[in-house]
Amino acid sequence: MARSMWKGSIAFGLVNIPIELYSATRDHRPKFRLLHAKDEEPVRYERVCQKEGTPVAWEDLVKGYEYAKNQFVVLTKDDFKTAAVEKTKTIDIMDFVDPEEIDERYFETPYYLLPGKGADRAYVLLREAIRESARIGIAKIIIRDAQHLAAVEAIGDALVLTMMRFADELADLSEFHFPKKGDIRAAELNMAKQLIASFDSTWDPEKYSDEYKENLMRVINAKMKGKSPRLVAADHGPKQAEVVDLMARLRASLEGTKHTRSTKATKETKDRKGRRKTARKKSAA
Question: Which residues is 74 bridged to in the sheet?
Fold first, then answer.
C-alpha cells in the first residue's frame, strides 16, 4: 500500500481519533519530459533573473507579491510565520450538514482516511454514526502550512475526506451572462426530454474511458517496436455545431438513438441465441 501523505487525528467535541491520509486517486496518464530535438537529451530548467539575464541559486531567492505591474512586496519566512494559523495535526470538524445542501462545485480532490494504530473501533463508530445520521462533516485541515476546507463522509467501509473550495474561490454566476428560459415551445421541450430519456442508464464508471490516453499509449508502444499504431476512433455523434432547425435535429437524434439501441438489442439477442445453440450442440455431442 502507498505511504500516507499526512498523519494526525479527527477531532470534534471531545472526540479525537488517530487517522492517516492517503490519496484516493491515481493518475495513469503518461508523463513526458522536454528533450533537445538535436540529440534527444533532457533539458534542464534554470531560474534566470530577468534584469541581469543570469541564473539565480535557490538560496538567493525570495517570495514577492505583485500588487501592481512590476511592483512587489517581499515576504520573509518570519512574515509567513506571522500570518500562519496555529499549525495542528487535526482534522477539526466544525459542523455536520445535509450533503444535499452543498453545491457540487465546492468539491475538489478525494482522500481516504485510515485509522491509526489502535483506532479501529473508534473509526468504525464514527463512520457508522455519520452514515446513519445522513450527514457530512465540514472540517478544516492544515497541510504544508496551508489551511484547507474539507468534507468528511462515509463511503462503503471508508471515511473519505474531500478537499473543498472556500466560498470566495467560486466565480459568481452574476459575472456571466446566461440565456433566460425565454420562449421555448412545449413540443420542443417534450422532444428534448424524450431524447434524454432515450439515453437513460445506470451509473457505471467502468463504462467510460480516456480514449486519448489509450490511443497515446498505443502510439508510444508502437514507436518503441518500430510499428504503426492501431488506433480506435470513437464516434461521438454529429460534429456540426450549428443548429438550423431545433425540432428537426431533435427528431433526427431521437430516431437515430432508437435505431442504434434497437440494432444493439437485436445483435445481443442473436448472440445469446447463438451461444445457446452452440451449448446445445456441445451437450448433444
Answer: 64
- Answer yes or no: are the C-beta atoms of 159 and 113 closer than 8 Å: yes
Q: Is the pLDDT of residue 244 over 60?
A: no
193 class by beta-carbon count within 10 Å (0-12 exposed, 13-18 middle, 19+ buried) = exposed
C-alpha cell at 38: 538535436
Dihedral angle at the C-alpha atoms of 232, 237, 243, 247, nearest 10 degrees? 180
185-237: pLDDT as tens digits: 888 888 888 888 888 899 898 898 888 888 888 888 898 888 888 887 655 55
Please give the Cα distance from 200 to 203 (Å, whole number): 10
- Residue 171 corresponds to which amino acid? A
Query: In degrees to the nearest 10, what's the CA dihedral of 10, 13, 16, 20?
Result: 0
pLDDT at 211: 86
Q: What is the DSSP string of 76-138?
A: -HHHHHHHPPP--SEEEEEEEE-GGGS-GGGEEEEEEEEE-TT-HHHHHHHHHHHHHHT-EEE
- State the CATH class of domain 1-170: mainly beta
Residue with cell 426530454: 193
Q: How confident is the model at residue 264 (pLDDT cuts 50, 70, 90)?
A: low
| Residue spans per domain, the chain | 1-170, 186-235+242-273
At 88 the pLDDT is 78
With beta carbons less than 8 A apart as the criterion, state whether 153 and 107 touch: no
- How many residues are present in the chain? 285
